[in-house]
Amino acid sequence: MDAVYSELVESQTALEEQHRELGEAHDFIGSVLDAMTDVVIACDAEGHILRTNRALVRILGESEEALLGREVEALFAPGERKDVHAAMNEVRAGTLVDQREWHLQMPGGALGLISTNIAPRREGSVRSCGFVFVGRPLGELQRAYRELDEAHSTLKRTQEQLLMSEKMAALGRLVAGVAHELNNPISFVFGNMYALKRYGEAIARYLEATGRAPSDPELEALRTQLRIDRILEDIGPLVDGTLEGAERVRDIVQDLRRFSSNQEETPETFNLTRLVRTAAEWVAKAQRARPDFHFELPDPLDVTSRKGQLHQIAVNLIQNACDALEGREAGEVQVTAWREGALVYLEVADNGPGIAPANRDKIFEPFFTTKPIGSGTGLGLYVSYNMAAKLGGSLAYAENASGGASFILALPAGEGTP
Q1: How far is residue 95's CA from residue 4's CA, in Å, rounded to a whole number?
Q2: I need a labelling partner for 32 at 20 to 30 A (CA). Which of 13, 219, 310, 311 fits?
């Protein structure tokens, strides 16, 4: 009796241990199933639901207890239930069903698309005793694909913008080098023209003096034939015109060097009106279809600031206005400047499509652009905004009365003005 009792106790202990292990395994499998975002449905051989997970409960809005025992086909849209039944027969025949798209019948008549796999559920290693449905909600998958696609597009756009930014930096270095090389021949032209002007004045005085002396008829005839008097009248204006052209070239070269230089500028007093007109000429000459420019600029409008940075801001604002008018008939750019107390204002407005309300809080962010990839860096307004702040001013967007965009630059008229 003692031996029998001892064996019973050992058996009971072993049974309790197995029961505990079985409970732990059940809980483990349940926690894994509930943690899955995919739908899992275990059915018997007739297709009645034996077990499911929380993913299906969340989608259908019913408890697991309410789902147990129901036919699995009834979970799907009425028009697809025959397809589900046929797929179960395929599994009975030994074929795995992979990625079939069906709709779950959700509360309120809504349908949730899922990509479904069906595999046989086995007891032991051979005997099939039912089915296992595994479905992935395509809404979540499509959202993941969409987020991935957006991230890829953003990365591609950023790469294009960085490439364009590097090209612009290389172009700036090239422009600085060209401007430096042009400086020497321009200096030669200036020196030679000033010398030629002195020589011309000396020759004119000599010829005038010889003209007062008794003249030789042959020399008089030659003077008339060569039109010496006409040459004496033209030589002064020709030299002055050449010097004026050389001065314009020198100013352009200085603007190019200032525009492309990374060195800190010293403030200087200059005519803002002349600077803005120069910037507009630069931009207009590069346009395939030049818009109509309208200027309301007092002349002179003197300010004390950093000329190169202000020139770059003007170029960026006018270029943006021209880009907004690309492909648009009767495009107009209005450039206005005025002084109010200690501040000077510059407004660049266009009659283009304007800026969408959803984008207005992003226009001064780096790399933000509505232009096609490769057409813009998204840095023009960002750079201009920061330059304006460094100059002690501000740059703001305003809606144009004509429906386009308007950017207003406010700057202190003198150095040190808040």
Answers
A1: 52
A2: 13
Q: Which amino acid is at 246?
A: A
> How many Å apart are CA 303 and CA 297, to the nearest integer?
13
Number of residues assigned to the chain: 418
- CA dist 268 and 401 (Å) reads 35
Residue 66, token pair as written in the block = 């309410």
Q: What is the pTM of this model?
A: 0.45
Q: Tens of pLDDT along the chain (418 residues)?
A: 667 667 776 777 777 777 776 666 666 666 666 667 788 889 998 999 998 888 888 888 888 888 888 999 989 988 899 999 999 999 988 888 888 888 888 877 778 888 899 989 887 666 778 899 998 887 766 777 778 888 888 787 777 767 666 666 666 666 667 766 777 777 777 777 777 778 777 777 777 777 666 667 777 777 777 677 777 777 777 777 777 777 767 766 766 666 555 556 678 888 888 888 888 887 887 777 788 888 888 888 888 888 878 888 888 888 888 888 877 777 888 899 999 888 999 999 888 877 877 777 777 777 666 665 545 555 678 788 888 888 888 888 887 777 788 899 999 887 544 4
Q: How far apart are CA 214 and CA 181, in angstroms?
A: 52
First to last CA, the chain: 107
Tokens of 249: 């070239």
**SS3 of 340, please?**
strand
Q: Count how many Cα atoms sit within 13 Å of the Cα of residue 144 in the half-sphere of its side chain.
A: 6
Alpha helices (runs of H) in 112-267, residue ranges in sequence order: 138-212, 217-226, 228-260
**357, 365 contact by CB (below 8 A):** no
* Alpha-carbon span 104 to 136, nearest angstrom: 11
Beta bridge partners of 335: 295, 348
- CA distance to 42, 90, 94, 269, 370, per residue, from 97 (Å): 15, 7, 10, 80, 46
Backbone angles phi, psi at 357, to 5 degrees: -55, -35
For residue 276 the two structure tokens come to 């803005």
CB burial readout 137-152, b (16+ within 10 A) else e: beeeeeeeeeeeeeee
Q: State how far the Cα of 44 lies from the Cα of 95, in Å rounded to an integer.
A: 17
Other Cβ atoms within 10 Å of 380 Cβ, number? 20
